[in-house]
Structures are given as structure tokens and as C-alpha cells.
Amino acid sequence: xxxxxxxxxxxxxxxxxxxxxxxxxxxxxxxxxxxxxxxxxxxxxxxxxxxxxxxxxxxxxxxxxxxxxxxxxxxxxxxxxxxxxxxxxxxxxxxxxxxxxxxxxxxxxxxxxxxxxxxxxxxxxxxxxxxxxxxxxxxxxxxxxxxxxxxxxxxxxxxxxxxxxxxxxxxxxxxxxxxxxxxxxxxxxxxxxxxxxxxxxxxxxxxxxxxxxxxxxxxxxxxxxxxxxxxxxxxxxxxxxxxxxxxxxxxxxxxxxxxxxxxxxxxxxxxxxxxxxxxxxxxxxxxxxxxxxxxxxxxxxxxxxxxxxxxxxxxxxxxxxxxxxxxxxxxxxxxxxxxxxxxxxxxxxxxxxxxxxxxxxxxxxxxxxxxxxxxxxxxxxxxxxxxxxxxxxxxxxxxxxxxxxxxxxxxxxxxxxxxxxxxxxxxxxxxxxxxxxxxxxxxxxxxxxxxxxxxxxxxxxxxxxxxxxxxxxxxxxxxxxxxxxxxxxxxxxxxxxxxxxxxxxxxxxxxxxxxxxxxxxxxxxxxxxxxxxxxxxxxxxxxxxxxxxxxxxxxxxxxxxxxxxxxxxxxxxxxxxxxxxxxxxxxxxxxxxxxxxxxxxxxxxxxxxxxxxxxxxxxxxxxxxxxxxxxxxxxxxxxxxxxxxxxxxxxxxxxxxxxxxxxxxxxxxxxxxxxxxxxxxxxxxxxxxxxxxxxxxxxxxxxxxxxxxxxxxxxxxxxxxxxxxxxxxxxxxxxxxxxxxxxxxxxxxxxxxxxxxxxxxxxxxxxxxxxxxxxxxxxxxxxxxxxxxxxxxxxxxxxxxxxxxxxxxxxxxxxxxxxxxxxxxxxxxxxxxxxxxxxxxxxxxxxxxxxxxxxxxxxxxxxxxxxxxxxxxxxxxxxxxxxxxxxxxxxxxxxxxxxxxxxxxxxxxxxxxxxxxxxxxxxxxxxxxxxxxxxxxxxxxxxxxxxxxxxxxxxxxxxxxxxxxxxxxxxxxxxxxxxxxxxxxxxxxxxxxxxxxxxxx
Amino acid sequence: xxxxxxxxxxxxxxxxxxxxxxxxxxxxxxxxxxxxxxxxxxxxxxxxxxxxxxxxxxxxxxxxxxxxxxxxxxxxxxxxxxxxxxxxxxxxxxxxxxxxxxxxxx
Lengths: 1001, 106
Ligand SMILES: [Zn+2]
What we know:
Radius of gyration of chain B: 14 Å
Strand content of chain B: 25-35%
Helix content of chain B: 10-25%
Bound molecules: zinc ion
Helix content of chain A: 10-25%
CATH superfamily of chain B: Folate-binding superfamily
CATH class of chain B: Alpha Beta
Radius of gyration of chain A: 37 Å
Number of strands of chain B: 6
Largest interface: A-B, 30 and 29 residues
Order of helices and strands of chain B: EEEHEEEH
Number of strands of chain A: 49
Distance between the termini of chain A: 95 Å
CATH architecture of chain B: 2-Layer Sandwich
Largest sheet of chain A: 7 strands, mixed
Oligomer: heterodimer
Number of helices of chain A: 28
CATH superfamily of the domain at 161-287 and 416-483 in chain A: FAD/NAD(P)-binding domain
Distance between the termini of chain B: 27 Å
Number of helices of chain B: 2
CATH class of the domain at 161-287 and 416-483 in chain A: Alpha Beta
Strand order of the largest sheet of chain B: 3-4-5-6
CATH topology of the domain at 161-287 and 416-483 in chain A: FAD/NAD(P)-binding domain
């Protein structure tokens, strides 16, 4: 069993018990524990199930490399899935649940898959769930969805706080091990602004566990001195529990700081996302130990050798009484020494090398049985190890002897943690003597000026002996500091004797001649259940590129991103392809290095701060008077105003009829208003609009269309010429910012010699629309200006005063009715609005919203940008050829509209539709289908409903549609496909309603 | 995430302040242009692996469009310059040639 040792554990405080729960069971750990060390101390050895075969899985590592200990932490609305037990610091009241099992961790139905695993090889999903087609929807997909997934997202709103923090530094040091501390010290002494990030909550990295003496000091003392010294420097900041997760172009780095645990009051700060710009980055991210591939190497109790000594030394936890150590290198002997010193039994060291080197002799002096050229033939047990059998490494697996044990500590050598080096295209090269992919310092990620952005040092650079680590960290930092103009002095470094280690021998398969049948039980990727046999199968099926094999087998695609599996997988691939590993290459490492909660990514951008709402000056009035809101662009606008108990449909109907029968008032302030002025303004607008604008006389208005240079319609609106050299261009509500930017772009990048000035004055003016037969009487009753048909003809504007306000009145109409738009200073908008509403009471006028506006427009056959257009529709399609100037040689879109595809008579063009039967509007977007199938026997679509309403004045549904040859087919009856079957509609003229001429004047 | 210096306001701008506008120095096919000229303008882009001239808009800054010469492979920036020019300025071209001696301006 795994248990807490009577002594030891430098990171835990034995006087401070911490209570927590695991799968509902109450447990106690110590302050300073990780969740993983506390679980091991409490003899919890199975912490989860694997993704595909649901095999029992135990803790393998001691840091972010651990693939198995994934937990859901917290409860209710403070639930966080997929947290690593090895990186979660234990705290009072922690509630952890294991994942990926159903119904329980002990008894998991998914485990049945393991019994038939020969039926589910690599690419299983791709191959199996293809046929029969029908089964996908009803059988396969529901089953896979039930079985798949790691963890479940919380269902309720997260009550806690997340924030972003921006930092600009000269030197960012990633990793707080000995290399990182040396780097920060050299740069800090040179006066540079330094930020050091450490993912764990202790600084010093592996050194205190792996090293006896640093010069003449204990490693912990030397580290404490450095930290004290660094903390005293104002230009240096050290941040623990902060993991650099992504490196991006030009020295941009994201890091996730774990601040709170969700145990304080709701609303506490949980995570801080650091957004860092660094002039240079020192990568001191260390190295990750590799497992070895032997049969049943995934049974709980098979752990990384380094993790075993971490648990013993740092947490005083014994992973088990009897540990067999399996290695291909000298480093694992540190675990042997550590276990023996702690009084634990090491029945055998299985060294795969033919000649293990002097460390083996030292271990033998401690009384340990070291065997060389040996391998593990099999691991016995399911929920925990009961024993192992040993064979010859060079052979095929014939068992030589068997022994009892509870733990197998494995070391397949070390891989530099190169992920952050690779995120921004730093290159790697294979180092054959070290048997590892190392960063190629001649091809680093580059800064914007082409200089090296990142310097990699220490074990991240492939240095595995203390003296080399220290020298490399100093050398790399001195280079970086000097490049930043600093004066580097590494005088404080400890004197460390030259270390010698016998070379590791690369062992990718154990034993080397493992037979085919057992390869199906030798795991590479513990989380995604990828075995040696899966990679070999992929190769047999023709996959050669590492990127393809990765996707086909899902190797390294789990949440741990292959931290322990990647190199072993690539080596097996190279072996199967019979190519050198450097030729196989690695797959691409992508951010994030460790998981980042969605809350941290969102930061403060949630709720009302996600996207601020734009409000008109009359917004408060609308809100107090029954507005039923709808978002339009970034604005909110009343869809309609609800009175009493009426429904939305009833309100819309009442508002429409009020405009047609008396008068309606609408807040049109959101309409885009762009002032275009200068000597070349007319010439410029002739390019922007399809119409001729330069001939418009001051005082007049003209409806205009704007196309992009691909010929497609993008916006429309009324242009008013204010003077010889200035125009006011109205745009759609959603288009104002875009059209303003569009005009600026053409002026700055194409016609920069034209003298034109463009300014967006949308928010400077409130605009009020008054439409209906009583509109003139209503406005005139406010007093101040004459608005007669001679004073203000249709499509003209005049300045004047209404009820004491300076106003500009436009006589334009989108409903076919007599209609005015009154613009007033934004600050006076609400006051004038109230006066017009009050005056309107004498004329039976009511306010109306956007839905009535749309219906009134559609009734008279006016198009709506975004309804009738979708970026692929030309003015010609909509029958708007009258708005296309024939005199102009050029305007945006003119040349493109002459393309044969856009002039084809077969294009879908605008028509009106009236239902033959039924009294509900046609479905938006419903397709018309031809009675004849296509040449391939498919249903042929010949048109589409673009807008559809119930017209209150006509008391029937109306619709507009784009139909193939539509305008030539008036009177034809089309069939439209709706959810409940087909409906019939007749093609008619899109102008459904004609207000009387008298009313319009 | 790129850093580009806006030649108008002098700010070393973060990419979040900027909006990319595609390839620079395209020639607009005006009314009356031939089919291949129009195709070239609307659809044909050089998309090189290496030196690229591109348009950027300092949209959350001074609002000006400018051009950048950048390596699409290494993200190095050779220079930024006014959008109101038909070709890259000499100092930008010589900086590219200094760092990419074999580069030929297509
Ligand atoms: Zn700028």
C-alpha cells in the first residue's frame, strides 16, 4: 500500500492537517501536499480511467506531465473540470472527483471495451462508424457521446472573478528552477526589468531533490539566499503558481496564475491571465522524464522514477513498500538511493544497458540487486501491481524470473520541455548521444527585428548534469543580458565539481524483440490509450508522416498533449518506418502548455462588460414606455412598445396601422450619419455610390446604393447635399462604423490626393421619424417652421426651428406615407422627442418600433440590407438598375458587375410572394423547389424567401424572395419547403401596397 | 502576436490594436478594365513564404492605414511605411536586401 512515511517530507507541515474529500470520501492530508501526494498518502492508487478502454489508472508523475490524475474540483457553480491532481495544492475543504467512468470509479461499464480491445485498434472510429449510415445518428453517436469526454462543464454561472494583467518586461524568465534563478539573478543585478514565472508554488525545481550540495551549501539554503536577494530588487518580480502556457510572435507570452481555489466568499479572484510582452525570454522550463514501453506499463503503481523520489523527499509519502526500478540511464539510481535511505525495499534494479556504469556498483554496495541487460516482461495486477516478471532486454520476452512488488519506478531518460520553444517556431534537432530532441539554438524564435527572441538554458537545453546546467544558464543569460544592453556579472555562481554520468542507451521497446501479441498491451499514451501496436498498425496502413499518425492514433492529443508519450511514440514510429528519428521529426507543439480555465481567458469580458450596449438619447424613455428590445448592431432598439396585456404581434399590428391611418413616431437616431466634405467630395461619392451624387443640388436628397469592388450590394441610405462641398450620407444602423472605415480606407489608400474629409457624426445627432397622413400637421403644431409641400418638397431638406430647437428636417419616406425625419443635437433629442410625443396625442399618433418599420418598408417593396442582401446579391438582382448610373465611367463594383456570371439572366432576382392557401407568413429562408429534378436527380432549388411578414393593412401575409427568372414569371405558383411540408405561393410584384397620392403629399 | 510600429503616430502597436488588410501595392482594376486585369486585382495574391508587403490599419489607434514589409515565415519586420505610395521606400528595400541577400522583388 502507499502511505505516509513516519519522517521526511520537506514541503509538508506535519502539524497542520488539511481535510478534503475524494469521490465523496472524507480524507486528511497535510499542508504543503499536492492533491496527488495526499491521495497516495491515503492509499488511493486508482485515480481515474483511461479514455478509450477505461483501464484503471494511477498517478504516474509529480507535475504537469502526469497524464492520469485528472479531477473535477469543487461543486455546483464553482466546479472546475480537468484539473491535475499533481499540480493542485491541497487546501482545506477541497472536493475532488475522478472523471471518465460510469457509473463509478470502482465499477466502470466502459471497462468492457478493454476486454474486446483487439476489436478497437487505431482508427477504429473512422473505420467502424461509417456503415450503416442510419446507425450513426441513432446508435453510434449517442453511445460515443455518453462514453466520451473528460469531465463535465459546470451548469451554472461562475460566481467568481477572473482578470487579465498586462506586463512589459526586459527579460521574462520561464521556470524557477536553478537555471531560472541564475538567469533572474544575473539579469536582476544588471538592472533589467525581470519577471520570473514558476508553475509550482516553490522555487528551486528539481535541484533540492536531486542534488546533495551546491558548492559548500545545501541546495535549499542557496536557493533561499537567491530568492531573498531577488525579492529585495525592485526591478525583479517572482511569481509562483503561474504557468507560462503560450509563446506567441514578438515576445508575447500568456501565463495563467492560480490565485484562489473557490473556497472563499463567492466573487473571489480565481485566476489571473498574464499578458506579457518581453524584449527577451529565457526559457528554463526543465525536462520531463520518459516512461518505458513494456507490457502492462499502465497498471497503477508504475510511476516515473523522478516522481517516486519527489513523493518520498518532498511529501514524505511512500508510493509502496517494494519498488522495482527500471532504467536505461544513471539518473534513476537517485531514486534507488532515496528509497533505500527512507528505509524502503528495492528488490531489484532492472537496467536495460549491457554495462550500467559505476552507479550500479554503488547501488550494489547498498545491498541492492542490480541486473543488467534486463527488461520487464510483464506487470501483474489491475488496480495495483502485485509483481513483475523479468526478461532479457535483447530477447523477445522469455521470463527469467518473477518477483513481488507494489511499485515499478521507470526512467527512459529525459526529454527537454521544448513546448514553449516550439510554440513560436523555434526549431529542434535530434541529439543522438543524449537521445533527445533539443532546441536548436541557431534557429530560435525571432523578435520583430530578426534577433533571437528566446534563449533556452539548463535542462530545457538538454543539460542534465548540475555543472553543465549552471554553466549553460550563466552563459545563455549573459548573452541575453548583453544583447539588451545590460552589464552581466555571474560572479555569485556556486563552484560545482564536474559531474560524470555513463551514457543512457535509447530503449524504445522493452524487451527489444517484444512479440506482436504483447505489443497490444504496451502503452505509449496513457490518457488516450495509444499502444505500440496502434502506431505499428498505422504504419502498416500507410501512414508515414508523424502529423498523420498522431491524428490517426490520437497519440499526444489528450489534455496532457503527450508530455510523457510524444518522444516514445515518435521513436516507435521511426522504428516501424525504419528511418532515423530525426527524419521522422516531431509533431507541432501548440498552446496551451497546461489547461487554462475559460474564465481566465474571458477575464472581465463577461455580462454587461462583454460588449457594451449603445443607447440613443431617448433610450430611457423607451425603457419606461414598454419597449420590447432587440439588438441592432451594437445598439438596442425597441422592436415594438407593449401596451397593457397585448402580445408582441398585437403591438406590431397596432403600430403599423397607426402609421398608415394617422401617424407614427420612431427613434431613428441609430441611423448612420457620415459627413463627407471637401472640394473633391462629390467626385468621391460618385465612386462610393452606384448613383451619380455629384449632380445632386444642395438642399436635395437622393437614395443611394453602395457596392464593394466585387460588385455586391453592401449598404444603402439617403444622401443629402448640405452645400457645394459637403454631403451628409445616411447608412444603415449596423453599417455606420463599417462604411465610415470603408470611406477612410479608399481615401487613405487609393485616392489620397483627393481633398475629402470624412467624419462619423452618428452620435452627434438624435433623429426622429414621423410618418403617416397626419405627419405634417403634427410637426407643424410644434411651431417654428413651414413644412408645406412647397416649402419642403419630397426628397428635400431644410434647416429651421421646431418647438425652440434647431432642427434639420428631411422629407424622405421608407413607408410610402408622408414622412419627415427631424435631426436635432443629441443633447436635445430626448426633450424634442417628448414634445413630439405630446403633440402627437392630438393627432392619434403613436410610437413605433423596428418591426413595424420593416413591415411598412416591405409593404411598399423596399429592400432591407441584410434581408434581401447577403453579400452575394447585386443591385441588378434586386431590380434597382434605376440607381445605377450609366453615365459614370467608374464606381466601386461597376467593372465587377459586368462579369458574365453577374449578368446572367438565370440569376435569382427579387419578386413578391403571396400565399395561395393559409394565413401565416412563409418561413424566413424557405426554399422554392422546382417540379423537375436536377441532371443528377436531386431536388433543384430555384428561389429563397428573403423577408416575410404579416401585413396588417392588407390583412394577409406577404413575402419577398429571390427567384430564378422570377420577374419574368409573374403569376406563377411556386412550392416552398417548410418544416411541416410544402406550401404554395404566387409570384407577384414586390410592391404590395400603394398609399394614395393625396396622403403622400 | 505581432508588434508593428505605426509610421503615422509612432506607436509600437500590439496586433490587437491593428487590423490586417491583405497584400499591399495591388493595382485597382477601374471601370473598363480587361478580364485578366480584373481577376488579378480581385483574386490573385502572391502569398509568398518569405518577404511580404501588406496593408495594416491602426484601427484602435490613430485610424491610419500603413504598409509593413514582413517575413511570413519568421515574422521578422523589415519596416513599416506610409500607405500613400506605389512602391516600398528605398530604406525598407535595402533593409530587406541586407537581411535577405538573395531576395528578388517580384
Ligand atoms: Zn497609428
